[in-house]
Amino acid sequence: MPERALRYHISSAVVATMPARTGAVLAALAEMRNVEVHGHANGKIVIVIEGTSTGMLGDRLSQISLLDGVIAANMVFEHVEEEMQGHDGRIEQA
């Protein structure tokens, strides 16, 4: 019998950069936990952010938007996975 639900949030976002600063932004993104770059072209970078809450994703996106060379950082999609942890510690997909 499930005891509590564990939520995991995954979001995609597009980061628009000044073309001359794209390399520096890519380097900064590579150093961030729970951020993965999936592609970039013409000053735009597609990323995935992962975390345990919507607030965590929003905080990370805010940090990204403040990087030097970033024009805009916009969340495109968010998905939430929920798993149930039983009394015995086993994880089951909800």
From TrEMBL:
Keywords on this record?
Chaperone, Cytoplasm
Its quaternary organisation is: Interacts with the cytoplasmic NapA precursor.
Protein name, entry field: Chaperone NapD
**Translocase among the record's keywords?**
no
GO cellular component terms given for this protein? cytoplasm
Q: Which Gene3D superfamilies match?
A: 3.30.70.920
User: Encoded by which gene?
Assistant: napD
Any single GO BP term: negative regulation of protein transport
| Pfam families hit by this protein | NapD
| Coiled-coil residues | none
Subcellular location(s) per record: Cytoplasm
Single GO molecular function: signal sequence binding
Stated role: Chaperone for NapA, the catalytic subunit of the periplasmic nitrate reductase. It binds directly and specifically to the twin-arginine signal peptide of NapA, preventing premature interaction with the Tat translocase and premature export.
- Record has Cytoplasm as a keyword: yes
Family per similarity comment: Belongs to the NapD family.
Q: Which organism is it from?
A: Rhizobium chutanense
